[in-house]
Amino acid sequence: MPDLSHSPALRTACLSRKAPRRAWRWSASLAAALVLHGAALTWFARHRDAFAPDTPKPPVQVALLTPQPIARGQAFGRPAPARTEPVRARRSGQAGPAPVLHALTSAPAAPEATSAAGTAAGGAAASAAAAASASGADSAHASAAAPASTPQAGLRFSVPPSGNLHYNTFYNGVENAPGTIRWSSDRDGYEMLVSVPLPFVGTFTYESRGRIDAFGLAPERYIEKRGRRPEQVTTFDRADKRIGFTRTSATLALPNGAQDRFSMVMQLASLVRGDPDTYKPGVTRSFYVADDDSGELWPIETIGDESIRTAEGLLDTRHFMRLPRHDGDRRRIDVWLAPSLGWLPARIMQTEPNGSQIELVWRGPLRPPGAENATSVAKTPDDSSDAPAAEPGPAREHP
């Protein structure tokens, strides 16, 4: 019987019968792979938020405070202490006299009340005028005392007295040479010079100068110099109500209460010094802040009471943070104000859009500053004989 196993015809017939089976198997495998990949993509799309890095979310906003007119009063004294439990009460006698301003909340009512009082007491006014001709000195004294005896309701605003503040500085968590905030305020204006030394690039300086007007601190000139780069100047033209820049030819309208990037810190400190109980977690105050080429609203939210670590130990503070203004906004500013230091900034951290961080942390003894607002009564090693530090003494009155 002939052997047909090596017959070409038989082999062809067998292969022709197996070919459809192999094609079906490959098709089934491909379809199963596509289904599995599709299911995996669908699952990832639904759960991709679980793989995103955790980002700190600010607390829910419960109140929004906006700039209000501020009238200069005649009240002076220590910064108002906070009454919240997490922050320790301030000891008596730890701060010198400081000017206090008041925000007007019912300004239109004052003229009406004065007019009504004058109409109702017309005869008395005539008698007073007759008596004034006989005794001019007594009349002048009475007229000067009358406005001062009328209380003004509203938010308190306490400007910190002058002095040098010393800080340890950090760049991306690495400690560098100490930095300073030289703060000077008088009856008419203020000056603020922030110096932060950074390795390789030089010292970053931020200078703010201006007056104290009906809305608190009113910058007139802001100078920013980063290392060896040319300085950038922002000008606040109060006469023409415009903001100008050296970095760009564009100008912006100057709203009331506008600040620069660092006067905003002291404006916030002045507001909190005046009425710390207003700034509870979630309370947000809106500031219009001009940078070196633009201006925008900064929502500064009260995060809450926290303890920060300094070289001398823990320090109770209240944390404030600028909220993101739009999606993808990575620039951030955090400020920690210490009630035991007269609500001065104990820590400032600025996060740049590229993620780098510049940080200042209180340096020196954790003692409350005196009237000169220095880190302590005794000078720190950073103070030198030629440093433009303010002399100790009581704060000068605001008219």
TrEMBL record:
Stretches the record annotates as Disordered: 72-97, 363-399
Pfam family, any one: DUF3108
The name this protein goes by in its record: DUF3108 domain-containing protein
